[in-house]
Amino acid sequence: MESIPYDKRNGKIWFNGKTVDWGDANIHILNHGLHYASCVFEGERVYDGEIFRLDEHTDRLFYSAKRMGIKVPYSQKEINDASKSIINIQKVKNGYVRPVIWRGSEMMAISAQKNKIHVAIATWEWGSYFDPKLKLKGIKLNISSWRRPSPNSVPWDTKAAGLYMICTLSKHEAEAQGFTDSLMLDHEGNIAEATGANVFFKDKSGQIHTPIPDSFLNGITRREVIKIAKSKGIKILERKIKPEEMKNFEGCFLTGTAAEVTPVSQIDGYNFKVCSTISELSDAYQNLVRKKSAA
Prior knowledge:
Elements: E1 12-15, E2 18-21, H1 32-36, E3 39-41, E4 44-47, E5 50-51, H2 54-67, H3 76-89, E6 95-103, E7 117-125, H4 132-137, E8 139-147, H5 165-176, E9 181-185, E10 191-194, E11 198-203, E12 208-210, H6 220-231, E13 236-238, E14 249-256, E15 260-267, E16 270-271, H7 276-289
Parallel strand pairs: 8-9, 8-15, 12-13
Antiparallel strand pairs: 1-2, 1-7, 3-6, 4-5, 4-6, 6-7, 9-10, 11-12, 11-14, 14-15, 15-16
């Protein structure tokens, strides 16, 4: 399934309030979302037939739309119900859900006040974002030549399509250099995040350090992992982190809906161990999403 192009797959997609055939979920080439990035979305995981933290994801989807000046023509309950319905129709047990909202084709210029708002929800079976073998020994990152923008220049706290352009550029740059992903710095040169995941570091005393999310998303998985760590008595330090500080850390990992908890073995010239703390946090997160514990 992984090798089939996404426009060639079978099944159903929830599209503007109706369930349509996968191949019929089409839009016109002259739509504002494509040309001007008038588009917001979410990425959600399905575990054992249920969407993890669906309410939080839908909250963020609607917040992103509001920040982009987009009025969603459905209620949050309708989107939640549609999301649950489409995973049942598609019989997705362990996979991914992609709700997306965009402006249509009524106007084709910077202004888009008259454009219809479209909403779609697609879902598919999906495994690990990173190669499972790489995850066991830790993935390798370069440091991107692109930086997260200043928070007063973009709607940084949204999942808006335009914000991911530099993530794709960074990811491609990293892969061309033989790395799996890329670490991005913020506009001040501090550590920010990876291309689609938040980053954490473990020091020699067992404390965990993570950047303050003030120019990038405070991920839902990030927040869950912080809760897990605190429940285990691990001290979390949210602060500005300079790249050169990485020499003082012994462990590193990424968190995200797609990445889950992914150990990192190298960032540029800095090396890290896949220590027991990271493995335990990963196991605890898997227990949480699959409801194997009371966490």
